[in-house]
Write a structure and sequence with these properties.
alpha/beta, Rossmann fold, 7-stranded parallel sheet, 11 helices, 11 strands
Length: 298
């Protein structure tokens, strides 16, 4: 199969590209700077349409582009770029797909934060979003930006990705050193559900979506067995052989402003579409996921 990937230089984009190439697929990388390799094509998603010939004979377009979540949460510029970088890249690709003579499938990156805080309610892809937190608002607009491809009859899969666990990348690359120092602990009450996945299952799930023509619409990529923040904390502490006494009060976390709901809100999420489609997860529970993630890449 022939893939076009935006955001291929990021951690997940790199892992996906390498896995696709290892499996024998052909990958074209969209880059915003001057191309430095034969498999790169320059694009300028904020300023101009994607050149039509880029999608010639392409089977799947994947958008993973977007500014980093880590930044100053009190900065309006950071928040604006968080939204713009995801919405405009998605819209540019969706419009190009809509105009293509043969429309490739569109795997549009998104986030499990779409749903907002639902407490203990068990959520699937058919669940509605709740509240107006920053990430939920971004994810909603991000999803809507793929509409031109849908309107043209293209197959669109919205990858509602939970935070991905891997020792080489945030959040685990930031949390693991703290836990190893004995400075780990639950956030707020710790009762809130905290959806996560692993790089291993994320890459496999994305390729599964690309290869399965019957899949379209939202697809949650998260552990099949949802865990609370407290369960995550205890599992990570056990795996690095350290206590987890340093509870972070909710009042402190609320000081981070717009991102506080992502830390204190509860999203008890199931990957129902993948389960129904027969996808086989390698990691079902938080202990298995963390055990793999702490040795990833070794």
């Amino acid at each position: 199969m022939r893939f076009v990937i935006a955001g291929s230089s990021g951690f997940l984009g790199t892992q996906l590209r390498e896995s696709l190439q290892t499996a024998g697929h052909f990958v074209v990388r969209l880059v915003r700077g001057t191309p430095t390799a034969a498999d790169q094509i320059r694009w300028s998603p904020y300023d101009e349409p994607l050149a039509p010939e880029v999608l010639d004979d392409v089977d799947v377009v994947v958008n993973l582009a977007g500014s980093a979540l880590l930044g100053n949460p009190h900065s309006s510029q950071w928040a604006d770029e968080l939204m713009r970088s995801r919405v405009e890249t998605t819209r540019t690709l969706a419009e190009a797909i809509a105009k293509a003579p043969k429309q490739p499938a569109f795997l549009a990156g998104n986030a499990s934060g779409y749903y907002g805080d639902h407490g203990d309610e068990l959520l699937t892809e058919s669940s509605k979003r709740r509240g107006d937190s920053l990430l939920s608002s971004v994810a909603s607009a991000w999803q809507d930006a793929a509409q031109p491809a849908r309107d043209a009859g293209g197959r669109v899969v919205v990858l509602r990705t939970a935070p991905v666990l891997d020792r080489r990348s945030p959040p685990l690359s930031l949390l693991a050193p703290l836990f190893k120092l004995g400075l780990g602990g639950p956030l707020g009450t710790g009762d809130q559900y905290f959806p996560v996945t692993t790089t291993d299952d994320w890459v496999r799930a994305v390729i599964f979506c690309a290869e399965n023509d019957a899949l379209s619409g939202p697809v949650n990529i998260t552990l099949p067995e949802p865990a609370t923040n407290d369960e995550f904390t205890k599992a990570l502490g056990d795996l690095v052989h350290r206590p987890t006494f340093f509870k972070v009060p909710g009042t402190v976390l609320r000081a981070v402003g717009p991102m506080a709901p992502e830390l204190l809100g509860s999203v008890r999420l199931l990957p129902q579409v993948l389960l129904d489609a027969g996808f086989e997860f390698h990691h079902h529970d938080i202990r298995s996921a963390l055990a793999w993630a702490l040795r990833a890449g070794r």
